[in-house]
# Entry
Amino acid sequence: MAASNGNSKYDAIIIGGGHNGLTTAAYLARAGKKVLVLERRHVLGGAAVTEEVFPGFKFSVCSYVVSLLRPEIIRDLDLPRHGLEILPLDGTFTPMPSGDYLWRVNDHGKTHREIARHSKVDAEAYDEFGKAMQAMCRFVKPILSMVPPDPATLNPKELMKLLFIGRRFQGMTSEDKYNQVQLMTMSAIDFLDQWFETDVLKATMSASGIIGTFLGVRSPGTAYVLLHHYMGEIDGAFRSWGFARGGTGAISNAIADAAREAGAEIRTKAPIAQIIVKNGKAKGVVLADGDEIYADIISSSVDPRLTFTKFLESGTLPAEFLEDVNRYKYRGSSGKVNLALDALPNFKAIPGPGAHLRGAISISPSVEYMERAYDDAKYGNFSRRPYIDMVIPTLTDPSVAPPGKHIMSCFVQYAPYKLRPGLNWDDQKEAFGDNVINTIAEYAPNIKDIILHRQVVTPLDLEREFGLSEGNIFQGELSLEQLFFLRPVPGWAQFRTPIKNLYMCGSATHPGGGIMGGPGRLAALEILKDFKGAA
# Structure
């Protein structure tokens, strides 16, 4: 096999042009390193991608809202100068089968009055809940920006990190400490039950606790996932969600522009066949066309299954490490249905166009509804009546559809990757899409009449098209045993791997999934530290 173009060696090769891989590349290039990013698909962004699926309609095919993108990345890479513009997403509208609804907005007074319409007790509790969650967010926030400590080591630096977390915990009020322990251990519903009585409010709020996990709203551990999503930040405001103008691909493209400006080289349609390892050290990569490219370090932003079992020859890794990698849970549980519309959906609860369509529209009418959706999935079926989170980005950003037309993006749970015996996703795909449309039609009867095109994305599509094993949108569940110093496997949460000069920088590492960029940034900082040490 010939070396690519007989070309000069790179300081770093990044496998995968998702937003985390691009973030790593941008930080390394800014530090003066010669960096190459290799992306398998024709378009950058991984799951944070915008594609013109039908003429004139640009879909955020997978990830569709932004909230967790780290402010330090926006600042360090000067992303607004590279075209990033976040448009706020105002509120959540939950229609109910009775014709009533719950509509929470970013305006505190309006939300207070709306919740009071359902329960005066809950309206008062909502303020207290918000304050308590902000305290939890403040405790967790610095942890998102730190490299996880290794609790099994006696290294003083690692112990200092643990001490830092311990001191922060000690500095909290007794009430906040109890809340924090409960958040780490309870189910989303058990946690919310302590605060609220209104069923539709608890159901809609609990939805954040199941995204990207094969768990139900009553499953222990989902309270932490709720907090993870609660930490959305736009311009420093907790719990703010938004759209990127031009779709989520605009975020990846802004990071890619920052990386290119700093000198990084980015190639699309460049699938990897193998990582070259010699004497226990990563030396380069072999592309699918046989080209070999060499670099001092390799950093993989794809998930552990692909990195360690597909790209490495067997026998390269310690058996114990490989066992841990094989135990890591993906269990994709969600799909997407993207719709091109001729007009706006007309909801029975609030007929006609209006501000209620500009935020998230949540089909989560009751706790029982949410739990029944999970019951179907437990036995290998997609939910007959799924939780659906819908947004209509064209109301905020008309640039993504032709004039007068709209896009509706529907995130759907549950769509289990592993269907029961006798069923497969290739056969079930259209039935899944029909089921989602039928569910929406119960609340917005005109939906079937206004659909021009639809794109159905199953967990199998997420695996085949986007390289997400088992279709997990976070490259592995955000369950408690797969967080912080346990992500992706115990003892290897600091972005390094048992192979020298091979690093991980994707969502399968701390601090996890969502359009955050945190894993990419932290990995780059560790790589630069090792470069310095080797100099």
The longest helix spans residues 120-144. The two ends are 31 Å apart (CA to CA). DSSP finds 17 helices and 20 strands in the chain. Confidence is low (pLDDT under 50) at residues 1-6.
